[in-house]
Amino acid sequence: MLLVAVPPLSSWVQYLIEGFPVGCVFGLVAIGLVLTYKTSGVFNLAFGAQAFLSAAVMYSLDARGWPLWLCFVVSVVIVAPLFGLLLDRALFRYMRNASWVVKLVTSLGLFVALPEIVKALITGQRAKFNAPSLARLFGIQALAGDDGVFKIGSYVVNADLATIVVATVVVVVALFVLFRYTALGLRMRAIVESFRMVELAGVDSERVSMAAWMLSSFLAGLAGVLLAPLISVDSAGFTLLLVSAVAAAAFGRLVSIPVALAGGLILGIGQRAIIGFSYFWNWPQSLQTGVRPALPFLALFLCLIFLPAVRGRREVTDPLSGVDPPPPAMAHEYKDADTARMTKRIFPVFIALFVVVVCFLLSDLWVFRLTDALTLAVAFLSITVFTGLGGQVSLGQAAFAGIGGYTVANLATENHWPVLLALLAGIALAAVIGALLAVPALRLGGIFLTLATLAFGLMADNIVFSAKSVAGGAPGIDIARPSFLDGNSLFGRDQMWFLFVFACFGLVGYLVIFVRNGTTGRFFASLRGSETAAAAIGINGTRQRITLFALSAGIAGLGGGLIALQAGHVDALTFPALFGVAWIVLVVSLGARTVDGALNAALGFVIFQWLLGDYFKMDASIALIGFGFGAITYARHPEGIVEFRTRESLLARRKAALMKARIEQMFSDRPMPDGFLPTRAVTAPVFLGFVALLVVVIANRIVGGSDSVAPWVIALCLGPSLLYAVGWSLVTNARLTRESGFRAGWAIMAGAAVVGAGLGWFLTNVTVGHTDFGDPQIAIVAPTWIGVVIGLVAGYAVAAFFVLPVQVSSIARARGWRTVPVSWMDGRTPTLWIVIGTFLCYWTTKGWDAPFLWPLYFLTFVAFTVLVQWIGAVQNGINELAVGEIDVAPGVPLADDGLPEELPALAGEKA
Amino acid sequence: MGDVTPVDANVPGALLDAVGVTKRFAGITALHAVDLTVAPGEIVGLIGPNGAGKTTFFNCLLGILRPEEGTVRFDGRDVTGLPVYKRARLGFGRTFQRMELFAGMSVRDHFIVADRAHRGEGSLWRDLCNRSQPTAAENERADAMLALLGLESDAQRPAESLSLGRGRLVELGRALMTEPKLLLLDEPSSGLDVTETGAFGDRLLEVQQERGFAILLVEHDVEMVQRLVSRLYVLDFGTLIASGPTAEVFADAAVRKAYLGSVD
């Protein structure tokens, strides 16, 4: 008979007592998660980041010698709720009725950006804190025995752990009272069903939601400072804490607060028990270290798959959701036949040019970087499939990429397979595991599927990828690229590899487009639209979902294989699970539905990192802040920024065509109305300045062999066109003011110019020897007057960017138009570039020595393009005011030539 | 039980033959031994007050729910255990009470998708070779359906931008593209005004006479039922209380009591 030795009872009690406080923290976080999910429908994955914020504030204040109670009050009672308030007011209130994907991606953006912001502003990159005990603060220390610990029988509990238990009990009782006995609690429970429904019942839902966010943020802060003495104060630790808590929340199906608390306790005690078992049974070292952190993910995964209430649960749909406007159509649906034909013809030429430029003109370093971007782009295409076509969000794509990457490494290097064969095996293995994952995840939908993929990704990372037999332990595994890509007389080694990766990307990109336009894509779209209706016409949802998982995982596997080959090396840190989160944030914010969205995300990732890290010598993680905020824009443009821009520009083209037709039709025999100027006549002189600079730079490069140009030459080239732009804006504003009567515009622009000049003076004079960004020796070298001039122009420009469009739109509104030609929102992009530009001016005048200048010229080019686009938009708006409203809202039926069947009549000529 | 004698449950040659369908939810019997038959080409109605179990019965017929007892035979085949999509391929077509259109898809694409799903054509492999563009035959069938339902002008519009009435027609068209032998309509008049309901009924009758499929109509609108339906079943508290020719059933006292709420 086989006997299994069981630890003695005393050990069990020990596990219980020691695991209980950790479980309390898990429970607290889980309660916070459930609370926000219940009251706002946001599954706030940024919760751990919020906890980190409070802990960081607390311990940086403590490090400055503030009294402990004040640190606690500031970080938990003031900062945390205020931050919750900020999140609600600035972000989530705009998404009340948005789908769960929008809310999730926004919180993912915070998840990525917030720790970096905290590090950049509060703690510094590698700050370490000695977390002081909170026990003294609450008087718990005083209750403890003489040796500062509590004794339960022969078991010892230190005061910190006791503090956690006490705090949890207090919070739980307070919450119970809140939800059970107060009106606010009742309202919080109601608004999750339907925000609008509750409004109709006469409740100010905004205020309830604000309160809920502040409360949950407070809980996050409390959990953060309670936990800090137990783990180190770093963002990674808090991230993992969050996932453990997600598992606890899943016990309660994300809606039950008591069960979430119980789940947290079980997890905490379970984790402690597993450590005990692993010592008792003397498990191998790798299992000992791997299992404990993996337990929450395992619990989460099993929970999602086997808990009947979670299985098959559909998202709560708002009974009033029918009043939302439909999402905008894809850009290609706006394309007229002409544009489509042109794109088809130009595209191959463009690709050929690109290949020529990359292979023969760019340096090896840049070929390497672009290849880097392309390998990532292949992996990103898996998100295009999963999210763009399938409508689901997976946080586990990095795991599939890892399966591909490690398979290639092990087969090619350790087992001496041909590399291409190993790559194919990696794809196949990833696809098979994807399909296998699809089976248990079949009935999961929406957020639950996303959490399951997160758990899967973290399990793969913690258990499989950290194993020595997979990733080769500390030294990792080196991989050689296929020998036929070694390079020849025409192409170098890197160039051949680039061509191969480019071909892979092209192939997969086309396959994705084919699938999207083919039967499978249509079936995916049907299932996304309505699973019941899809089944009712005979679509096998199970099969389609397995296809979706396998296809997406296979593409990710290929991407991972390419990433591994590109790096030439893999180790345990090549495919961390958190990459999966960052990837989805990037792709979804730039456009998850199109291939160019994936490409742009990858290029943006690589180029941003290079620009910030290598070029401007800033910490590369700042890029993550940018990407995080990028995800937040997703809330406004769920179709992705690239897609949004494409559609805007197509609409603008259509509008221009209509304007042209109208002018030919109505003003051929009479003079153009007052205020009308051909747009190009206005924009061309401005752009000329940049062209002049370009010519000078190129000539200087050819003749003088140098990239750098004297500042006065730059001023001479750009000055006249900038002056022209300023003059145009003054004249235009004067003309518009006459009609709109908006005289405050002048005052705003003048005031902004003065403020800008003052800021310029301040930055060049007062903050000499600024020591942030790392280098203490830099000092401002530019003379003050330059700062003042730049500030003056920048301040004026920012004001003008908003004042002029507002003038135009107010005139249009006063005339009773249905649409406005331009609005204040058109001022945002040029303002962003003013900020970037002045920051660069500030940066470069700090004595910074640029390794080479053309990136700066490129940025100048982009800034000029943005400026010219803005001027064009305003002039177009003024022209529209002159010739009458042109309404190109989607849905206006078009004749074959792209014009409306009937031109709308002019306002003045209506019968 | 009403005065009207129930139609024999096992009609030879029936298209749909549900026998003794019983469904319980956690101790509550939502359906109690319900029998229902539909002959090929026949229009049958199913009415009952709210909560009578109409939708539950509907879902049992379609395979969304599994009945605890009883069998559903379709076209001479026992389909009781088949999943929804397999029944759809055998010839069940349906529309929904609350519209279930594919958001973001044009009306035309709705029809093409339904056509493909029905014919089982197209595979991932064909997609990957870019051989999945709609064929001439598919376009023709979709165009014919657009014309049949008078939806030509909306063909390219995304489905979610349509009015409720037009949306119902799209659902009907999508179901018809799968060439159903039996069309199950779940309260097609809900949310429509009198004119729209009339227009929908006209269109439906027209198409039905042309194609000759059978219809099982769950409906609240008494006028519509009287106009379309030749035979009627009445459910109340999960039990069949009457069935027979429409006029006779409406004259039945038990039906009037349960459904119209009055006894003259």
Q: What can you tell me about this protein's structure?
A:
The complex is a heterodimer of chains A (911) and B (264). Chain A is built from 32 helices and 4 strands. The longest helix of chain A is centred in the first third of the chain and has 32 residues, at 9-40. Chain A is 70% helix and 1% strand. In chain A, a hairpin with a 2-residue loop joins strand 1 and strand 2. Chain A is globular. Helices cover 38% and strands 23% of the residues of chain B. Chain B is of the alpha/beta class. Chain B is built from 10 helices and 10 strands. In chain B, strand 9 and strand 10 (239-245) form a beta hairpin. The interface between A and B is large, with 32 and 47 residues.
List the helices and strands and how they pair.
The complex is a heterodimer of chains A (911) and B (264).
Chain A: H1 9-40, H2 47-63, H3 68-90, H4 100-123, H5 140-143, E1 149-152, E2 155-158, H6 159-181, H7 183-191, H8 195-200, H9 205-227, H10 235-251, H11 257-280, H12 285-306, H13 337-361, H14 364-389, H15 397-414, H16 419-438, H17 446-464, H18 468-471, E3 477-478, H19 493-517, H20 519-529, H21 531-536, H22 541-567, E4 569-570, H23 577-590, H24 595-615, H25 622-633, H26 641-666, H27 679-704, H28 711-740, H29 744-765, H30 784-814, H31 828-844, H32 854-883
Antiparallel strand pairs in A: 1-2, 3-4
Chain B: E1 16-25, E2 28-38, E3 43-47, H1 54-62, E4 69-74, E5 77-78, H2 84-90, E6 92-95, H3 107-119, H4 124-128, H5 136-149, H6 164-177, E7 182-186, H7 194-211, E8 214-218, H8 222-228, E9 231-236, E10 239-245, H9 246-251, H10 253-260
Parallel strand pairs in B: 3-8, 3-9, 6-7, 7-8
Antiparallel strand pairs in B: 1-2, 1-4, 4-5, 9-10
Helix pairs in contact in B: 3-5, 3-6, 5-6, 6-7
